Structure prediction request, 311 residues.
Amino acid sequence: MNQSSLSYFILLGFSDLSFQLRLAIFLILSVFYLVTLLGNILIIILITIDPHLHTPMYFFLRNLSFLEMCYTSVSIPRLLADLVREDRSISFPCCAVQLYFFIFLGTTECFLFAVMAYDRYTAIANPLRYTVVINRTRCLQLATGSWVGGIFLALGQAILISNLPYCKSHIINHFFCDVPPLVKLACGDKYLAEIEISLYSTVVVMVPFLLVLLSYVCILAAILKIDSSQGRRKAFSTCASHLTSVSLFYVPGICVYVVPKSKYSLDNDRLLALFYAVIIPMLNPLIYSLRNKEVKGALRNRMNRKLCSQR
Ligand SMILES: *[C@@H]1O[C@H](CO)[C@@H](O)[C@H](O)[C@H]1NC(C)=O
Prediction:
């Protein structure tokens, strides 16, 4: 960031609200944050220790849980602190690092959802070849590809945005250093940068999203062909929960990063951002894993064994 003009930003966050209201938000978000961490840690532990869950789908789910924990930790601890203190300044380097991690983890999540849809598609449309197509190596390649892709693509974006000239104002009308508020703040000629940034969001958000939709259309077609109604229901319920969580993630993402900027105000962004930074990472473990029969079974097994061994 242009050190010569400004050396820090101020995150306005929710400073327009009264202290009581901010305190209430602080308490609610703290609980949400704890639930997110505990829920995701529980899933990671369960999937790691239970041999029944050593399948590609749960490998990706464990990876997603890990990703969600990192993702919410990029913005929420900082927001929690800002809600109850007066000094809301953030130095340029911190802001750039936060921006980088947010883009990196968001990009990886977009990719990981596409990978998971591909996994479900193969399992349902091509059950006989599933174990050959999605083998151990392929799993690792797909997951690693998502992470490495996120790491490097985000680096370019974060460098581009942090090198924009910031001279007018250092007040960010948001609760963390996100792409739209920073670009809005930049002064001077940012036309090319804006085009590049919207191109990036469109490709990174829309391409995986369309791939996900495409796989679910194919999955639906394949499910309708299943003869047994029980098999149909099982396949459908797994995919319905995936599809719910995927839509919850992509739809706000599309609103904030893909839809042209004049169509909405940054005020709505703040609420949407709260939604995808806090609510989604909290709901995902519930939607994906904990309402899943196999995971519930694994959890019950563990608890029974624990109770028995205590006797
Ligand atoms: C997620 O996948 C990456 C890349 O394969 C791997 O390095 C990491 O350990 C995985 N994390 C979990 C919690 O499974």
User: Anything to note?
Assistant: Strands lie at 8-11, 89-91, 171-172. The CA atoms of residues 96 and 162 lie 6 Å apart.
